[in-house]
Amino acid sequence: MIPKNEFDKVLAENPELTKTFARILADRLKAINVHLDEATETEKAFKRLVTEQSTRVEHGLLGKCKVFQKLKNSITDVSQNKQPVLIEGELGTERRSAALEIHQRSDRADTPFLIFEAETADAGASLAGGSRHDSLQLELDQESALFGHKKGALSFAKTRRLGLLEVGNQGTLLIEGIDHLALSVQRKLVSFIRTENVYPLGSENPIHSSARIIASTTIDLAERVQAGKFDPQLYKLL
Questions:
Q1: Residues 6+ apart with CB under 8 A from 184
Q2: Cα(164)–Cα(185) distance, rounded to whole angstroms?
Q3: Are 35 and 137 in contact (CB under 8 A)?
Q4: Which of 96, 133, 207, 233 would disulfide-bridge 138, Cβ 3.0–4.6 Å?
């Protein structure tokens, strides 16, 4: 690590170093452009996504013990409102099934139930085998997938992309591994939860969406907040 003032001094004394960093960033952005250009789809592709995710068959929660019945009662309670929900639990504790049951017991049962995996910026069905991203690429992928982007907003944005929050209007969006969301995307999600306005990349015009947020994680988010690695406002809202 190097303090910013010292870093700026090094750059000032070595102009060629500035050019080197610019080339490095250009190469990274070029790679990101290729990746996101391939991932960018038209509205038809997102509508296919809605259909695929909404019709995915998943088993429900089964159990008869007192602790399990308490869980079922909690699911029934939270399904009756539109507030965000946070599901914490270790691997294998059926967090996705719990989220789906909340959706199915709510008045949104006939609307899309979409899944977004924050760690891979993937809107697919499984985390296994997900591609790896560097931090800059992951941040752009996450924001583009959730909020969409305007045509021409960035060099990769050759077509308009609808974000999951817009596609999932009136439905439910499950964000799995929300602890992996970049802080900038967390803050943008805070704004959405408070206003129900979606701002695609490159656009200042809000798009209304009443998509309900359900978030899941395998870690203690309170500890992440204390460590400065998770937005306290988002944690409070969840």
A1: 139, 143
A2: 14
A3: yes
A4: 133
* Beta carbons within 10 angstroms of residue 121's beta carbon: 27
> Within 13 Å, how many C-alpha atoms sit on residue 61's CB side?
25
Q: Which residue type, as a one-letter code, is found at position 63? A: G
Paired sense of beta strands 197-198 and 172-176, if any: unpaired
Q: For the CA atoms of 183, 185, 186, 189, what is the dihedral angle to 10 degrees?
A: 160
* Sign of the C-alpha dihedral computed for residues 136, 167, 83 and 190 taken in this order: positive
pLDDT, one tens digit per residue, over 60-118 is 666 778 888 888 888 889 998 889 999 998 887 788 888 999 998 899 888 888 999 99
| Sign of the dihedral defined by the CA atoms of residues 57, 208, 194, 121, in that order | positive
Q: In what order do the strands lie in the sheet with 212-217?
A: 85-88, 212-217, 172-176, 113-117
Q: How far is CA 46 from CA 112, 195, 235, in A?
A: 12, 23, 29
Lookup result for tokens 């943008």: 188
Is the pLDDT score of 126 beyond 80? no
